[in-house]
Amino acid sequence: MVRCGLVRKREEWSEFQRYYGYVPTEKGETYLLYIPDKELLLVRPGKSAPLFLELKNDPAPQAPFKETYAEPTQAQFMAVEEMRMNAGRDNWRVKRADVLRQYLMQGYMDIRSFTKRTGVGEGGLLREGLVKPRPERINDQHLNYEITKEGSAFLTPVDAFDLLLISPGMELPLLCRLDDEKASYWCGLP
To answer: What is the largest CA-CA distance in the chain?
Structure first.
């Protein structure tokens, strides 16, 4: 459900949380009903068959996934708020922060958050051939990189807002690809 973009990690830990802290995204609310005060996720009436069909669209069914690997997203949302506050009157930067927030609500992760957690960044992406430098940059508000066909399994570019995002649920598979030694700890957990 994470890789299909139906659930995302909640903002902060809760002592009563279930489902490893995952809550439905806007897309997931089509199939799932979330009752916050009971910490329950239920499949909506008549939506179990469409949910199973949607789960067949998993972009990487064989990719490693550990529920406990994903951290709460509070820090990412705080970074977005800081981006928005620092934007001042620059409408493009305000819109960029808003677009990033929309993607976070869908379960994506900003590459900067991934780099902060793992220490692996754009250099690793270049080394593995997941991105390549753009020969000519259109302007300062576009990405410096183009995503390769191989990288599109892990990454989602939002070119107009200079955002490079990790697709939902692909953080651990990307770490496996970039630094197998660091990922082996998480992949080895039961």
So the answer is: 53
**Closest Cα partner for 133 from 146, 115, 120?**
146
Give the pairing type, strands 131-133 and 40-43: unpaired
How many residues comprise the chain?
Answer: 190
Which residue, 44, 1, 46, is CA-closest to 19? 1
Nearest-angstrom CA–CA distance, 3 and 117: 20
| Strand arrangement of the beta sheet that strand 109-110 belongs to | 109-110, 163-166, 155-158
**Global pTM value:** 0.88
Task: Retrieve residue 140's tokens.
Answer: 């300062």
Q: Give strand ranges (E) for the chain.
A: 7-9, 22-24, 32-35, 40-43, 109-110, 131-133, 145-147, 155-158, 163-166
pLDDT, tens digit, 9 for 90 and up, residues 154-166: 999 998 898 999 9
Amino acid identity of 115? T
Angle CA 150–154–105, to nearest 5:
155
